[in-house]
Each structure stands twice: as C-alpha cells, then as structure tokens.
Amino acid sequence: MSAGTAPPEVGGRERRRDPLRRMIGLARPRSARFALGVLLGAAATGSGVALLGVAAWMLATAADHPSITALSVAVVATRALGVSKGVTRYLERLVTHDAAFRTLAEVRVRVYERLARTEPFGRFRSGDLVSRLVNDTEATLDLLVRGLTPPLVSVVTGGATVLFLTVVYVPGGLLLAAGLLLAGLAVPLAAAALGRGPGRREARARGRLSTTLVDTLQGAPDLVAYGAMERQVARVNEADAELTRVARRDAATLGLSAGATALITGLTVWGALFLGVLAVEEGTIGPTALAVLVLTTLAAFEIVAPLPAVAARLGAIRASGERLFGVLDTPPAVAPPAREGLEIDPDADATVRIRDLRVRYGPEEPWALDGVDLEIPAGETVAVVGPSGAGKSTLASVLLRFRDPDGGRVEIGGVDVTDYPADEVRRVVSGVPQDPHVFASTLRENLRLASPGAGDEELWAALRRVRLAGEVEAMPKGLDTQVGSHGMGLSGGMRQRLALARAVLAAPRVLVLDEPTAHLDPDTRDAVVDDLLDAAEGFSTLLITHDLTGLDRVDRVHVVRDGRVIQSGTHAELMEQPGWYRAVGVR
Fold first, then answer.
1. Same domain, 307 and 361
2. Which family does the entry's similarity section mention (predicted)?
3. Is residue 259 part of a domain?
C-alpha cells in the first residue's frame, strides 16, 4: 500500500457515513471555538429571555410601591441584560463565523488540491463541477453557522428557562417544557422530513442549471451557427423553472413550520396564563409571579424560533454534502510514491522504455492498453499512430502521470516513473495536448505559465523555435497582445504553436505531442507538423497521431490498435508492409 493511502475498508466506511456528520466533522479542529460560540449564543438568548422576565417583575412590582433600592436594582439589571444581549450576540456571531469561514477555507483547499491532480475533471461536466465548487462547498458554512450552533444554544438556554419556571411554578415549567419540545423538536423533525425530498431536488436542479448555463456560454458560437440557440435557451429556462418550483416548495415548508411554531407558542402562552390565574386565585403564587410566568413563557420561544428553518434546509445541505464528498472521495488515478522527496537526475539518460504496459479505466472495463512495449531513445522522435480508441491518448496520460499503470513499467533513464512524485515526473516530461487551453490573458502571461521567471529574450527564443515569432512581432502589442477567451484571438495553428512554446520553455527532456493537429485544416496541419518536429529536435519525443503527415521525418513508428502494438518500423518500411498503416497512407 502506498504511503498516505487509506485502506479500502476505511475509505468505504467513510463514504457510507452520513454527509451531515462528515461535514460537521470537518470543523473538529475548531471545536473549542464552536463551543465558545455556543456559550456566547446561550448567553445572548438567555439575556433576551431574562430581560423580559425582569421587566415583567419590575412592572408588576411597581404597583406595590416597592423601595427605590429594589426598583434601582431592577432598572440596572434591565440595562445590563439589554447591553449583554447585544454584546454577546455580536461576539457569538464573530466567533462562530470566524471558525466556520476558516473551516470553509480548509474545505476549499482540500477540494482544489483534489482537483489539482487533474483526473476528476473528466468525471464531471464543467457546469456541474462549478456548482460543486461553489454552492455545495459553501453548504458547509450554512450547516456550521445555522445548523450546529442554534440547536445546541436551544438545549442550553431552553433547559435553564424551564428549570427557572419550574422553580417559580411547577405546572408552568412543565407546560413550557412541553411547548418547547413541540416547537423545538417535533416541528423541526417534521420540517426536516418534508424538506428532504425538495432538498435533494434543489441540489440537482442547481447543478443542472449551472451545467446548462456553462454549456450555453461555452458553446454559443456553435449554437448560433447551427440555429440551436433558441432550443438551448429553452433548456436553460426549463432548468431555472425547475429550481424555482423546488424553491417554492421549500418556502411552503418554511411557512408551514413558522405557522406551526406560532400556534404552539400562542397555545402555550394561553395555557400558562390560564394555569397562572388559577394559581393566583388559589393563593399558590402571587400576581408578580404570574406576570413573570406568562412573559417569560412568551420570550422562551425565541430560543427555538430558528430551528424549523434550519431543519427544513437539512435536506438540501445533505444533498450538497453528498455532491461535495463525491469530489473528495473520487479515488485518485495516481497514487503517491512510497517515498516522498525523491528527485529525478536532470542530467540522466532521457531514454523512455515502456514494458508490458497495461491500463484500464475500471475493473470491468476492457484494457485500453494491453501489453504495450516500445522505446524512445534519447534525442529521437518516435510516433505512435492508430485509429481513434486505440489507446494512444491513454499512453500519453501515463507518461504525463495523469494515470497509474495497472501493470507493466514506464521508465525514464532506467527509473520507474511511479517511484517519483507526479510533479517531479512532469518536470522532466512535458507535452502538448489535443486541445491546449489558452488563458484569457496576454501572450506573455500564457508563455510564463511554463516558466514564471522567464524574461522576454527567453520568450522570444521559444517563439522563434516554434516559428511563431513572426506573427507575434506583427501584432501591434507584441507579447502584450490579449488572446481572448480560450485563445479565440488566435488561429488554430497559432494556439498549437503557443502550447508547444510553453512546453519548450518548461525545458523537459521528454516531449509528448498528443494529436497536435487534430482540429486543423490540411494546409495548416502540414505546416504545424513541420514546425513541431523542428522544435522537438533534441528532445526524446513521442508524437501521438492518427494522421500520417510528416511521419517520414520521425525515427520510428509504432501502430497501436485495440491497446496493442501491431506494427513497428520506419515510415518507409511500414508503407511496404500490408496492414493499417499502408492502408491509411495510400488513401
């Protein structure tokens, strides 16, 4: 087992735990802060209840003309409770929100670190991933601030208030206990049950709306070109309408809960008044105690007022938690090495040897690579060709450490790449993907992604090497030219050359070019292939393609089909042999 990897049974138990418990568990390092927040919240709520109780005592006692000292004490107590309510409420919000935001920051870091391994990106649609990153991650804050502190405050303050009224008048205390249990437990449980289904639907609807919006924005040019924009906008409206319907059901649940709480509050206060009047007539308590009993009972329901709304949100928060942990629990495709901190010798042999490489994407899936053997001698260019689905891009993923082999070895200079951290391998191996991403910034900043400290001379040298310097010099702002969103201000060939210039700036020893001309027209493709091969001189280069353009310039060609190498040789040798290569080449 690799270091830092949890046993399978541990991960399974963790995934089976309730998402709400797991989200609360994220706050465990700050449990002391949340405990302090509960105490401050109890002090704030208790001050509010006590304030009304003291006011009731003072008003009822004033009719008996008490001493100035007694009234002065009551006035001072009233002012003190009013001040302490505001101060402790402020401190409670400050402490709990600080702890919750710090926890949220740690959760975001965990999510970003998980996604930085790159392999989860292909498992979620971009809009859905945005929703998980934003809405579902922030549900942790909602739970910690509104779902953790208020129930604990209610237990502490409600218990103290019931105990106080029991001392004043036992039936009144018992009646308040029953009312608080109904309003603070029964109503929230019912709200939670009613909100479970809508909560799940809300999380799904929000993810669907986000996905549809992102797809619409990213695909707007194609949608307009094919006259499909109206249909796509209708899908956006449909997703928005679904989210609105769910929100209305959620609002109905909240309204019903608020009404039930108000009804229980009114019945409990009337019951306390009825019992208190009977007790006064019987001489059990006095008129002052009656006023304290009734007004304290009324104020006590402030304690449980937030709970139904919190409970109604638990369904949505639980669904968001499931989606959040769906990202965090995604098993990594690249396991950490047995020993961290190892570095590959930058001056070592750059020969790449692949032996009996086997990869598949799931236990029941067919082999994407099934016993591949090939070698890329140092400084030479080797091409891997074959039809779509042959396993070529999977080979690139293994070399770039985006996937671990399920069998066999990949060696660079005689060293197994799985013995080293993925980032260390990527320091030696760089590449150009099929559809390189160009950031909405300047040419200079896009180039400096590969070498943040590179000066303009180095940037121009890289551009000259990939034959892009002339086009950049012709631009009015040169390296400071804005390339637009996704590099829309550049042609397809320029985007490929820019990606290659970034790879060259990274100064790798092994260069992987994965379908670099897949989206180019024939004339541009021929020119780009020549430029790529010229720029790749001196590197150990793997060119992955399904097109045979320029392969007469590579040192060796391997034909891959169904995950296996079925032909190997030079371009001239393969053109003389019957098989897939010659069949494609003579078309």
1. no
2. Belongs to the ABC transporter superfamily. Lipid exporter (TC 3.A.1.106) family.
3. yes
